[in-house]
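Researcher: Next sequence.
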Amino acid sequence: MSAGEKAKATTEQAKGKAKEALGRAVGNERLEAEGKRDQTKGDARAAKEKAKDAFKN
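Model: Next structure:
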């Protein structure tokens, strides 16, 4: 996994977790859903990079 893409995936996942927690804390369902979406994007990016690495070897 390239370092840049791994960092982007980790950042998206962390940002998503923070948004989700904040949304839950203040009762904002839209912010909570947005956080879950960001986490999913980060997970997908990480999975894509892992798959690319698997085919390299």
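Model: The chain has a mean pLDDT of 92. The longest helix spans residues 29-56.
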